[in-house]
Design goal:
Blueprint lengths: L4 E8 L2 H14 L1 H6 L3 E5 L13 H13 L4 E3 L5 E2 L6 E4 L5 H10 L15 E5 L6 H9 L6 E3 L1 E8 L2 E10 L4
Antiparallel strand pairs: 1-2, 1-8, 3-7, 4-5, 5-6, 8-9
Amino acid sequence: MPGANGIFVLSEIGGPLGERIRDVQRRFDPKLARETPPHVTLVGSSGVGPIVPSTPVERIRDALKPIADTTPALELPFERPHRFMQTNIVVLPLDPHGPLRRLHDRIARSGLPFARAKFTFTPHATLSFYPTLSRDAFRELLGMRFDEPVRLDRMTVYHTRDPQPAVKLLELPFEGA
């Protein structure tokens, strides 16, 4: 979400794994760690762009609640950290296929108005976004392993208006069986 304006749909990462990711962010990118909790962006930066900022929260809730109500919690493995698209950004990627892709596609087909996306669907958690990292810092980040699966059990909707902090608009737990 950094550097963007619009409404994003995330799934925040909680528990011990979320704390571990937050600790890595605090060490390598304190600004990122202060902005939002560790998360996976479901829509907004890849696949489809952010929801148009003028969209009323009630319309967003009406479109997303049926999706959340029928989506079970997802437990997914992270892949090895890597640089994102020839940038200095280091991410923990997730497989862009399977249940996460189906969830993304359901949101994309919800009837909400979306801006254009910058990238194809590339779900991930960001470890470092803002700083220019030293070679040693890159090596250390890329060598980290996150073997426990990430549990995604809700979607959270944020409105970003850089440089202002993101504002949480809505949170919907996944209720599917």
